[in-house]
C-alpha cells in the first residue's frame, strides 16, 4: 500500500526481453503492472510472453506458486503511467532514446515519483543531465532473467536524491530482491568486468585458439564461472551486449571494449542468443 492507502503500482516501459522479465517478476510478487510500449506488434504478444515466463518461473521455483498475482495492463501511451508508484524504463541501450522516454515519463507522473533506468552501461548522470527532476532518477541493472537472479546492481548518480534511494529500497523489498549500491560511471561494476571478459572470449574463438564449447568449459571448470562467458552472452542477448560494449568503448576510450568482429557478425546475421533461438549455441523452443 502507498502512504495514502492506495495500491502500489509499477509502470514498465519497453516490452522487450527485459521489460517482459521485469513485469513477470513484479506480477509474480503480487504487484500490479502497466507495461507500456509504442510498438503495437510487440505489445500484442506481451501478455502471452509474460504468461510463458511466469509459468517457467513457477516451474523452476524462482517465484512462489501460491500467493497473489498482480494484474497486468498493456498500454501504448505514457499517460497510462500517471498514477504509478514506481516507473522502470527498460528500452534499448541508447542514451538518446532513454532520455526521450524519461522526459515523457516526467511529464505525466507526480513529482517525487521514482524513475528508474534499467541500464547495463549508460551512466545515470548522463541521463540526469537531459531530464527534469534528476533527483528522482536512479539506475537498477536487472540481470536476465530478472525473476531468477536475486541480487541487483543499484546505481546512485551524483544527482540522485535520498527520497529516490528510499523508494528504490522499497521497490526491491516488494520484489524480493537484494540491491547492492555502486557509484556511477560507464558499465558500473558488473558490465565493466563481465563484458570485457565476454569480448575477450569471443576474440579467442575468432582467432581459432579454442572452440566456443572449450572456452566455456575452461572458464567453468578452471575458474568456477557458473555458465561460461559465451553462454552468458546468449542469455544477455548478443545485440544488447554489443550495444553495451559500444557504450563502454565510446565512454572510456578503452580499446578492449571494442566489440569483437565475431559478436558484430552474429548481430548482423540475426543470431542474438536465446531470444532468437541461435547465438553461440542453438536453442529449441521452450
Automatic annotation (TrEMBL):
Ranges where the 3-hydroxyacyl-CoA dehydrogenase NAD binding domain occurs: 10-184
Superkingdom of source: Bacteria
GO molecular function, one term: NAD+ binding
Family membership: Belongs to the 3-hydroxyacyl-CoA dehydrogenase family.
One record GO biological process: fatty acid metabolic process
Pathway noted in the entry: Lipid metabolism; butanoate metabolism
Important for catalytic activity, annotated site positions: 141
Gene from which the chain derives: paaH
Span of domain 3-hydroxyacyl-CoA dehydrogenase C-terminal: 187-283
Protein name: 3-hydroxybutyryl-CoA dehydrogenase
Entry-linked Pfam families: 3HCDH, 3HCDH_N
InterPro entries with a match to the protein in the record: 3-OHacyl-CoA_DH, 3-OHacyl-CoA_DH_NAD-bd, 3HC_DH_C, 6-PGluconate_DH-like_C_sf, 6PGD_dom2, NAD(P)-bd_dom_sf
Binding sites annotated in the UniProt record for NAD(+): 14-19, 37, 93, 98, 120, 144, 275
Species of provenance: Streptomyces humidus
Keywords: NAD, Oxidoreductase
